[in-house]
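does this look right to u?? guanosine-5'-diphosphate version
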Amino acid sequence: MNQDTICALATANGVGAIGIIRISGEDAVSITNKIFEGKDLEAVKTHTVHYGFIKDNDEVIDEVMVSVFYAPRTFTAENSVEISFHGSPHIAKRILEALINNGARMAKAGEFTMRAFMNGRIDLSQAESIADLIASENEAARKMALNQLKGGISQEISILRNDLLNFTSLIELELDFSEEDVEFADRSALNQLLQNLKTKLQSLIDSFQYGNAMKNGIDVAIIGKPNAGKSTLLNALLKEERAIVSDIAGTTRDTIEEVLHIKGTAFRFIDTAGIRETVDKIEEIGVKKAKEKISTAKILLYLYDEFDSTAEEVISFIKEIYREDLKVILLHNKIDKLVDREEPTLNSFDAQLKAELVPYYTDTIMGISARDNINIELLKAELANYVEELKTEENAVVITNQRHYEALQKSFNSVQKVEEAVSMGIQTELLAYELRTALEHLGEISGEFTNDEVLGNIFSKFCIGK
Ligand code: GDP
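got this back:
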């Protein structure tokens, strides 16, 4: 167990009704007791709350409530105290100073969670989920982080690891008896296991696209010639959303106006503020610049006005800009101007585009009127559909973390190598080696195999006090 006793402000740094300072470590209770007036905290039961005052030398600093938690049933698995005080940053500073003068030290970013991990209370993926929970800004992100905290991913990984581990032991047993040329591990059963592992790993890997989209939102670029109606479309898309957010005091319109939530997913309209200057000049700045602009986008809304563009123009632009992982939605805007308004979805102009561009976009082309709000709901449904298509099985574990994603890919590659080795009748040593590697990569996710650099990287992203 770590001997230092650490302390930090756990609530946001600013004025609030109540602020909370947490203290963790062997001496958490005894140090707090030295600055507490009201009762002897070292004589109280664990998991109890006490009223009193915090003093620095003889000066009373604040009236507080102190919660006392003795190890091991605490977040860090160490002795822990939480002091609830009147939420002034100045009082927080005074209490922290008093704690430090009596033997505690300031916690580093993420140090409480790191201790929870080091002391075996949670595994690494659970620790990461805590950062995700704190950062969650929508329902989908919150739910996925909570699932991970409850051990969803850990369980899935541990099942896979156990399967692998059993086999690795058999293979290693063969190594011990290598002189005698016996096979303990039935090769066809091993093959079966490998297939099974690959399927499961692949489905976790596949879930990342969806998980990442749900967690971080999806970037959408709106592009088109000047006056195609880009700003009008953005306004039409964001109309209801704005009405909702304008009720929230203190929200900045600028940033919020660019994000649209559909069915719990955040769609971010890239650089909306800049779209006027930059994208309007697409002909001047050229395709290269446009490509840069949309390089992070997953979806491109390309607007055109039939009376102001030629089909060739649209076609060549889309062909230039095409990327395999970009969903292109062609929007024939201003259909209110068409005589044939009864049938607003496709006309001969669109049909020409469609015929030429089928290999380049996911067959989505629709007529809209940004100004008159025609088919805007249909467009929103199409955006939501993009997310639905990413979804794998319902209720399955979803990977949301880049680090886990990479570890899973590495495991998959190792499993694939084992498979090749088995099919080529390769020596047991090599098999054992690849199996071990696959195991290690899986172990990286839960933190069974890790190093200081990885840990430092993960926990330094936490806030202080977490
Ligand atoms: P941007 O330059 O692409 O951002 O285009 P704007 O959104 O500023 O629109 C340019 C002009 O087209 C404005 O006068 C809009 O009112 C008009 N406009 C935009 N959408 C429509 C539409 O669906 N129908 C019609 N008739 N006019 C539109």
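Residues 224, 226-232, 280, 333-334, 336-337, 369-372 surround guanosine-5'-diphosphate (CB under 6 Å). idk if thats expected tbh
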